[in-house]
Write a structure and sequence with these properties.
Elements lengths: L1 H24 L9 E6 L5 H21 L6 H25 L6 E10 L2 E3 L2 E3 L2 E10 L6 E7 L18 H9 L2
Parallel strand pairs: 1-5
Antiparallel strand pairs: 1-6, 2-5, 3-4
Helix pairs in contact: 2-3
């Protein structure tokens, strides 16, 4: 039984190594196609920062269900284009529920982002298509992530850390329980 597990592990490692080597050799400057999300608070006041996170949670919840099963960049981008009005309604609703008189501005845009690390995943700096949600003036500290492919949707409430799902870890768990 132990020998079978070792053989399975070696097979998995070689399979992933082959895939990785093949992908690296065939990548272009345009890959990968990502869609980021960038939520900009009105200011750095505590209440403005808190409502930014509430908007993040509601928008992320909505996007998670809307983008579920989307497997290509073009489809994800086109879907987001059709949902801009709904995303504005969600953002404005959260602002209103929390006593803010200003509104949101929601748009898709290609913007520069610095390098960002999500635990063991690094997204290099560069220009990316992004869903931009500005709350009020949009001059406060911001929050951003990758919504396609989905690196994260919701931060664990109160913990400040992003939760990830690793298909590779799940594969190893299946063989080594």
């Amino acid at each position: 039984m132990k020998k079978k597990k070792i053989i399975a592990l070696i097979t998995i490692i070689f399979t992933f190594a082959s895939i990785f080597c093949g992908c690296v050799g065939n990548t272009t400057k345009d890959e990968p196609k990502l869609i980021r999300i960038h939520i900009r608070a009105d200011s750095n006041e505590e209440k403005a920062q808190a409502v930014k996170l509430k908007v993040r949670d509601k928008v992320s919840e909505y996007l998670e269900s809307e983008l579920d099963g989307v497997n290509d960049f073009e489809t994800a981008y086109k879907l987001l284009e059709t949902k801009l009005k709904k995303l504005k309604e969600i953002s404005d609703g959260v602002l209103e529920e929390n006593g803010f008189s200003y509104k949101s501005n929601v748009r898709l845009n290609n913007e520069f982002f610095p390098t960002r690390s999500y635990e063991n995943v690094v997204v290099e700096s560069g220009y990316y298509d992004a869903l931009i949600i500005e709350l009020g003036s949009g001059k406060g500290d911001n929050w951003w992530c990758v919504i396609y492919p989905p690196l994260c949707y919701l931060e664990a409430k109160g913990s400040g850390r992003v939760e990830y799902k690793s298909y590779i870890a799940e594969l190893f768990e299946k063989y080594f329980k």
